[in-house]
Automatic annotation (TrEMBL):
<dbReference type="Pfam" id="PF01841">
    <property type="entry name" value="Transglut_core"/>
</dbReference>
<protein>
    <submittedName>
        <fullName>Transglutaminase family protein</fullName>
    </submittedName>
</protein>
<feature type="domain" description="Transglutaminase-like">
    <location>
        <begin position="194"/>
        <end position="271"/>
    </location>
</feature>
<dbReference type="InterPro" id="IPR038765">
    <property type="entry name" value="Papain-like_cys_pep_sf"/>
</dbReference>
<dbReference type="InterPro" id="IPR013589">
    <property type="entry name" value="Bac_transglu_N"/>
</dbReference>
<dbReference type="Pfam" id="PF08379">
    <property type="entry name" value="Bact_transglu_N"/>
</dbReference>
<dbReference type="InterPro" id="IPR002931">
    <property type="entry name" value="Transglutaminase-like"/>
</dbReference>
Length: 321
């Protein structure tokens, strides 16, 4: 394991006013079929959701060819998904998600972030913590704890270590010890494969982080969303630095850990940072299987293979007080 990792800055609450950032978000998922198919069922998790740090100003989904059915559903965790049915022969499918969101700065109370991480375990939550949060302490379809996970947890979650330090260390360690490699894994790659190869993408790194946090007895969830892809024309981006983020060309993923007295604290090992105004949240769940950007069933002739392309734009359009 890595030693003497450079620190990951944590923004603590200093009561200073920071402007929110408005974004225009466009997510296009496009399939081209080698042979026309006759029916397409799909469910997309592409609608940004309201959070303590994010307001959804507008959102719409459009589909080409025109769907026979287009409806929305809210799941157990409050995520909104869009169901679509294209019930005619077609040789392509395009799903456009367009939104306007306003993202505020995240500041965390120094008092709670300096408490020992053990204070974040369920036995210390108190009676006001939502019961659904216990789901995020348990194993899930894609995330199990084990030897390699427990080894990382023992390095990061040292007894009595402050919560903020633990989360910063976890972020830096995964970023340093794992290599971002878009060709190393697929959406079906297991956690064990990622831990063995030490290569992967944002989805894999989020799974590793969630597994490690749960191994330490904490509640951790998988978060999907987007990253800022361009500057506004006036150069205003709140307090965040310039530079393209890894994973900004498509859907992104990170993890969130429950800290009593603070709420959910999000970290992004892929970019070695606490989540800030450059991130737009769409959904969260136990792991990737709960909130894939788009999944479905296609009915067509033998040999109806497809080519997938994804494009994401998250462009700052203005700032507001």
């Amino acid at each position: 394991m890595s030693e003497q990792l450079p620190p990951v800055p944590l923004r603590l609450d200093d009561h200073s006013a920071v402007k929110a950032v408005d974004y225009s978000v466009h997510h296009l998922t496009s399939y081209t079929y080698a042979k026309p198919v006759s029916r397409n069922y799909g469910r997309a998790h592409v609608e940004p959701r309201a959070t303590p740090y994010q307001r959804v100003l507008s959102h719409e989904v459009s589909v080409d060819p025109a769907p026979a059915r287009l409806s929305t559903h809210t799941d157990f965790y409050g995520n909104s998904s869009t169901y679509l049915l294209v019930d005619e022969h077609h040789d392509h499918l395009e799903v456009h998600s367009r939104a306007r969101v306003s993202v505020a700065e995240r500041r965390y109370p120094s008092e709670t972030m300096s408490r020992p991480f053990e204070s974040c375990r369920p036995e210390n939550w108190g009676p006001l913590m939502p019961a659904a949060s216990i789901d995020f302490t348990q194993p899930s379809p894609r995330i199990r704890t084990g030897g390699a996970v427990e080894e990382i947890a023992s390095e990061v979650f040292v007894p009595e270590r402050p919560t903020g330090e633990c989360l910063a260390h976890l972020t830096a360690l995964i970023h340093t010890d794992f290599t971002y490699d878009s060709g190393a894994t697929t959406v079906t790659s297991t956690l064990e494969e990622v831990l063995s190869a030490r290569h992967g993408v944002c989805q894999d790194f989020a799974h590793v982080g969630v597994a490690v946090a749960r191994s330490a007895g904490l509640a951790a969830r998988y978060v999907s969303g987007y990253l800022r892809t361009a500057r506004s024309t006036d150069g205003a981006l709140g307090t965040q630095p310039d530079g393209e983020m890894v994973g900004s060309a498509a859907s992104h993923a990170w993890l969130s850990v429950l800290v009593p007295g603070t709420g959910w604290v999000d970290i992004d090992p892929t970019n070695r940072t606490f989540v800030d105004q450059r991130f737009v949240t769409t959904a969260w769940g136990r792991d990737y299987t709960d909130v894939p950007p788009l999944k479905g069933i296609v009915v067509g002739p033998p040999g109806a293979t497809s080519t997938l392309s994804v494009a994401v734009g998250v462009v700052p359009v203005s700032t507001q007080g």
